[in-house]
Amino acid sequence: MQRFAIAALATTATTPALAHSGAHLHPHAGDPLWLPILVGTVVVGALALLVWNLK
Fold first, then answer.
1. 3-state SS string for 23-51
2. Among 1, 34, 51, 53, which has the highest number of CB atoms less than 10 A from its own CB?
3. Average pLDDT, whole number, for the chain?
4. What is the pLDDT of residues 23-32, one digit of tens each?
């Protein structure tokens, strides 16, 4: 029964009714902003890996 209660609370906490609007730091899948963030993260990771291997 405790697992059911935890699952019910977790499901309720993640409903779209609790979604927020306005500018915020984490991108959503529908936002056009996520692609440059993803590309930038991959570039920084690749450069870090390159520097680490040259060391």
1. CCCCCCCCCCCHHHHHHHHHHHHHHHHHH
2. 34
3. 76
4. 666 656 666 7
16: amino acid identity, one letter: P
Residues sharing a CB contact under 8 Å with residue 22, sequence separation 6 or more, in sequence order:
none
pTM assigned to the model: 0.44
Q: Which residues contact 1 (CB under 8 A, 6 or more apart)?
A: none
CA 4 to chain centre: 26
Pick from 5, 21, 23: nearest CA to 13: 5
